[in-house]
Design a protein that fits this description.
The protein is of the alpha/beta class and 168 residues long. It contains 5 helices and 5 strands; from the N terminus they run E-H-H-E-H-E-H-E-H-E. The protein has a 5-stranded mixed β-sheet, sandwiched between helices.
Length: 168
């Protein structure tokens, strides 16, 4: 059995400013770096075979910090990217209330398909191993939705630097 430690990236400048980051790179703020360091300390004694991250900077930087005590190399994959918010990307989230969603926002179906492909990729590339993967709020929710076979709205939101364990 493969054990997946699913982590959301640390807090970013845009999280604090309520900006819809989507697939922009994003940057950890000081608190986000501390969050990643705390996860690294908490997991320093754990046996982790592989470190995987979204290819977006905020997730990659979080994963690098967590991998340091293990001298782990970080592998990136676009399968873990955050939802593409299309024309909503970069906008102030409270201003989006009651707005009509643009046609170029990534669909839930596409998100769940990426989540399914990610889980299959982890199972095939890391059988029987412990894998720590750093993603984003919505893609991590989609991964859990597929894993638990539950609608997205039934999966609790992950906080920054939170860890959830899935046994594949």
């Amino acid at each position: 059995m493969t054990k997946l430690l699913l982590v959301r990236h640390g807090q970013t400048v845009d999280n604090v400013n309520q900006i819809m980051q989507g697939q922009t790179q994003g940057m950890l703020n000081e608190y986000g770096v501390r969050q990643a360091e705390e996860v690294a300390e908490r997991l320093a004694g754990e046996s982790i075979d592989a470190f995987v991250s979204s290819d977006l900077r905020r997730a990659y930087d979080t994963c690098v910090i967590i991998a340091q005590p293990h001298q782990g190399e970080v592998v990136t994959t676009p399968l873990l990217r955050e939802r593409d918010w299309g024309d909503f990307t970069g906008l102030y989230i409270p201003d989006l209330k009651d707005k009509v969603w643009p046609a170029n926002v990534e669909t839930m179906g596409h998100m769940k398909d990426r989540a399914r492909r990610f889980l299959e990729w982890v199972r095939s590339h890391y059988p029987g191993q412990v894998v720590l993967a750093v993603g984003h709020g919505i893609i991590n929710k989609a991964i859990q939705s597929v894993y638990y076979d539950k609608p997205m709205h039934e999966v609790p939101k992950m906080t920054n630097a939170e860890i959830r364990v899935l046994e594949l």
